[in-house]
Specification:
The structure is a homodimer. In chain A, 41% of the residues lie in helices and 21% in strands. Chain A is an alpha+beta fold. In chain A, strand 5 and strand 6 form a beta hairpin.
Chain lengths: 290, 290
């Protein structure tokens, strides 16, 4: 129910209006050939089509998607493409949709990717910053205060986590009240910390007793990487999405880089895994025209 | 992990220093004779003794407790007495303890009352306002922003809920992930609402899928009372503590009174229960010298 926008990496989408109705995906680059070019099967096509439908236009769009987000990384790659598709088409049409409806259209991309139209990736990808999904029935998302100096390190190790396995682990069981209360207290203090701009408190609040213990075992070297992040001054450390990427907060770009370096070294020494590091500010803006 | 301070009712405690060490409870009034006069068995005595211990003093104290909080109501009656005991003795000694340590001493009263030293009642009773208990190990409480116009109606129906039964209901089972995520989203938005001063959002966030459905069945007429509160303009409605009291938020004293009247009428018509109404501001101050 929480997500945030990274400054980088991000997908790029070229889009133009077309006289023929519907969505045509002209090309996809950067995906190693694994994503569908069929607009009905690709998240960017589904999100774009939903904007056309909501806008009630007879126009169509042609799209060129340049993937830069790593696939199956836990970084919300499909959410980034979905957000790009929805935002781009809304811009081309002169912004007929509200931001709220753009998020709903982007969620149609997520439905295509995972079967459920979840908003935890697309809402921050559209809106920027840190976004809370309070409720789906009715749908309500809330932008949270973003401290000016909030930085993040995300390390993407070169291994694969089965999303199906990661989901089965957390959905196929029930949880005890004391674990739940710990998470409730920490998510409440996380929001309080954002309001105060208290990054030390934010770091202490990154304590997940429900999901992290289950999914950590799917990430080789996770315990060593988390220890390395905290030892290097990281303000909290946990799993990005369903993994295998791992994130830590920091209060400056130099601290974020130092923490990221330590996490990469730990992935190498504990699990012989190479990785990519993305270190920078949490982005206050979401998908945008470039 | 969340609690708040009512403007009224509240217990009154008279306290004076004594040359003989330890705590003497001289008298207790307003309790119908049910509370122990033995300082080792009464929450106010236990909290007072813990302050003496922490302060390392050889002095003792004599206490007169005038109960005004209803017992076994869900309003934190034992927490109010515990807070009074800890704050009063700390004041008499010239405030040797920090607020943090006064809360810890008050928790010793709760340990005597319920077996576990929980802080959700005593922390707001000592500190005032709305308080989050983020963690017990290590112990950390956080005062949340208190909107100026936040009012509350609390209705205490004249019936009894077994605390043991109320606890057994929630502790003797486990919970599904989708219910948990709903509560996580709502507690996060509750804190965000306090930060924004958005009372409508605060009201929408009073949505408890975990505990309320289990404990509601112990309160005769609960569904009718909740509906009456919301129909009368209450900003959210749920159970106070383990019940049987029910609370609703409002944005003015007149709205709080109107909502409270509606809740009392519903207790009468749906369950033939008389009740007491406490309507007023959430108190920004906790236990204090009067």
């Amino acid at each position: 129910m929480l997500g945030l926008a990274l400054s980088h990496p991000g997908d790029e989408l070229e889009a133009e209006l077309s006289d023929s109705p519907g969505v045509e995906i002209v090309d996809v680059t950067g995906d190693g050939g694994v994503l569908s070019r069929d607009a009905g099967q690709n998240v960017v096509g589904r999100a774009a089509a939903d904007v056309l439908r909501r806008a009630g236009t007879r126009s169509g769009v042609r799209l060129w998607l340049h993937k830069q987000m790593p696939l199956a990384s836990g970084l919300g790659s499909s959410g980034a493409s979905s957000a790009a598709g929805a935002v781009a088409v809304n811009e081309l049409l002169g912004r007929p949709l509200s931001e709220h409806d753009v998020v709903l259209s982007a969620m149609e991309g997520e439905r295509a990717a995972s079967g459920t139209p979840h908003a935890d990736n697309v809402a921050p990808s559209v809106m920027g910053g840190i976004v809370l999904v309070r409720s789906y029935q009715p749908f309500e998302v809330i932008g949270l205060p973003l401290p000016e100096n909030l930085h993040i390190s995300v390390v993407h190790p070169h291994c694969e986590v089965s999303t199906a396995e990661a989901r089965r682990l957390v959905k196929g069981r029930t949880y005890a009240l004391d674990e739940i209360v710990t998470n409730l207290g920490n998510v409440a203090s996380l929001v309080a910390a954002l309001g105060r701009g208290d990054l030390e408190l934010l770091g202490r609040s990154i304590e997940d007793r429900l999901v992290e213990p289950l999914r950590a075992r799917l990430i080789p070297g996770f315990d060593a990487v988390k220890k390395a992040a905290l030892d290097a001054g990281g303000l909290g450390c946990s799993i990005a999405g369903s993994g295998p990427s791992v994130f830590a907060f920091a209060d400056s770009v130099s601290a974020a880089t130092k923490v990221g370096d330590a996490m990469q070294a730990a992935f190498r020494s504990a699990a012989r895994l190479d990785s990519d590091l993305f270190a920078g500010k949490v982005s206050s803006s979401g998908a945008r025209v470039v």
